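Example record

One chain of 96 residues, shown exactly as stored in the release files.
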Amino acid sequence: MDSDAIWVLIPLAPFLLGAFAIWMKHNRKIEEIRAAATAEKAAQYAAHSQALEDRVRVLERIVTDKGYDVSAQIDALRDTARIESPAAGDTGRLLS
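Predicted structure tokens for this chain:
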């Protein structure tokens, strides 16, 4: 490198350092925004997960209740589905 090139670069060093500092500050701000968005999404997922767990607990209580006849209701739903769905060789008519 020529000694004249060094004398040109030395006065530019503070400007380059300033630009680097501004760029680093900008990147730090972007990462803080991403972290906040990630934390917000995690909180939303946790709330949704908790709601689903609560619903499953209620369903477990209903199903495990001794006075509840689950198999009869499932069979009734199957019968209803057979009546409402068209037969394989049928052209759109409902079974009765």
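Notes: Residues 3-83 form one domain.
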